[in-house]
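User:
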Amino acid sequence: MLRQAQGVAHKQDIAPVLARLNLDAMSHIAVGDDCAAIPDGDGFLLLAIEGFMPGFIAADPYFAGYCGVMVNLSDIAAMGGRALAVVDAIWTQDAASANPILEGLATASKRYNVPVVGGHTNTRTPTNLFSVAILGRANNLLTSFDAEPGHDLIAAFDLRGEMRVTGPYWDASSHAGARRLRGDLELLPAIAEAGLCAAAKDISMAGVIGTAMMLLEASQCGAMIDLAAIPKPLQVPLPDWLMTFPSFGFLLSVPPAHTSHIIGMFASRDIAASVIGQVNSSSQVCIGLDGETSTVWDFSEQEFMGCVRGPQHA
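Assistant: Predicted structure:
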């Protein structure tokens, strides 16, 4: 089920694109992270973009607009950064079709206190499409390339939400207060700047296991993951949760000496976090449940995204 998940398949689409653009681990700016990290003085500028599937826009246009900000902010936070501004590109059949998308975008922009500063608009197109790009900055970088054997894998989720009726989306954001949302995101740069963790990713449409595969491939490591240890809402069955996009979900690779501190930081804000596995030196991502284990992916047999640690991360 995990190997054939649509979110996992979409991540595999990245490898041929990287090859076509001549982007690999030898590139000046490493690819495979949640954002492009561009050295800037004593820190890094972070640049990311998200596009949204037409079916999602059609089924839930307000939430698609809201996610335009929310998911980009997660990318910035996952790399230890703070967002500065967003721009959007919207194509719709008419102005009326654009309104709920823009309403969601404006609501999230205000709630998270990140301004929309420009973009591209066309309301005379055959179909409705939407994408959002974001700029941020990090003082101390969290990457996808610095997980190491012996690290604990910590998964952190905001479980104070509900499933959207339109798809596998856990919404713990759109009805939350601005102060809470901003404070929760601040945890990631705080962890980075305290030197407690070097590698992290936000949990994407590939789910927590697919996201672990992305992180581990980039770091050229493997892991054993205990499915029973993954925090989840009581009302959501485990197979469904493994395929769900959480509005606040992060995976961190942490030296064991810092594990309890980081879990405590999340707990102080009522965010569920636990160790779900350990990073090892193998090429395999394995899962276990009720005494049984299985290999989800073996990077020595098949690449996933094709993004691996280059010489700048050696």
